Amino acid sequence: MAKRPKSLPLSREPIHLTPTYRPTQQTIISSRAFPFLIDQILILFPMRILPLLVILAALVVSPLHSRAEILVKNGESIAFLGDSITQFGAQSGPGGYVRLVESGLASQGIRVTVIPAGLSANKSNDMLARLEKDVLSKKPTWMTLSVGVNDVMHGARGVELEDYKKNVTAILDRAQQAGVKVVILTATQIGLPVTNPENTKMAAYNTFLRETAKARNLPLADLNAAMVTEQASLEMAGIKRALTTDGVHMNIYGDQVMARGVLAAFGLNYHQLTAVQAKWNEMPDLFQTAPRIKLSLAELAALEAYAAKQNKSVDSVVAELSANAISAAIGGGPGIKIFKTEGFTLALPHDVTVQQELRADFVILSFKAGDKQILAAYAGNHPSFPSNGVPPQAEIKVGNINGLQSKTVTWKDQEGTSSRDTLIRVHDKGWPTYVHIWYSRVSKDSAEVADKIIESLRAAN
Fold this sequence. Notes:
This protein is an alpha/beta fold. The chain is 38% helix and 21% strand. The strands form three sheets. The protein has a seven-stranded antiparallel β-sheet, with helices on one face. Strands 2-1-3-4-5 form a five-stranded parallel β-sheet, sandwiched between helices. A three-stranded antiparallel β-sheet has the order 6-7-15.
């Protein structure tokens, strides 16, 4: 593996992909405007009036956060204290709510250090017992607190409301004494319908959380209310879609509801959240399928030979072929297809083709629109950058592309035609360490297409 160059420090954890979803304003709720309303309506009225909540939320609750700026700052750290929902939110890949919060902040230019502190089956007493070890000892700037589901769901082994109040109060007091700023998250649902006994009991727990956030002037992400509103919105639209995998733990859609709520509590406004969602919609590997492909032994042998020629595993080839087939079938977005190869992905216009040439321990890629080459790339561990030296008139820029450290040299010749060399550090461990992409003396239109392709690069496992 190549030694780390001084000009390109370690890349951050790569950002990955999401299914298309377009948010509506009413999905994002500032619960301080109606601290008890959602829970009380759910207790008093049946499921058939839930669609009215969407209208009610839109009328009574502003989706815009009242703060003028984002609370969390670049370079700060956030501990996510919670149960298995939070544990999975950090460990289940880039689509978990914890990682979506991280990437959402990064899209706004705010790089944070995530401290995962979710633990399966935890109740409020468990979180209080490990608060020092798992959170305070790590000295985070912020802590999000997600607690309550197991306190209620575990029944006789759970934590009753008065003890729950004492535990949460103690957690908040100790965090305050340690100088850690806290965002409170209301507890999400325990199955459906939302009027079932567990959710009805949990309403009082969430009422306490809302009252506590208001009394202590703490940011509140009312995720329970956000999920209710999202479900009602889907129902009104005739969309059959769950937000959880099992009634409790989030699927990709539930994770996005949670992440948007946390980001709103941190101060992102509607327009910023819309921009974040647009970024999520373009992330290549956020949702992963588990296809069961049946092959004969003859087909398997042919597939192994095909993979060997590309110096890849059978699994990686199957994943790549499947991704390309899906992209071709659904279009990968308006006029866009996702090109996935070992270690990274690119978004390409449908009229752009790619040829790969394996050379020793690196790969050369050639990108063509019709019969015209618009881009070339090197993927490996030992790039030559820039490819033809740095012209005197060149502009040199160090930055990042989708969270990955990059260095770019651009220039134009006397006739105004463009050239660009971009070096991207993709992986610290694994292949490739670098992707070096360049084009030379291409027209303005070709340069614009090439630039979009370069800016679409994302790391992939």
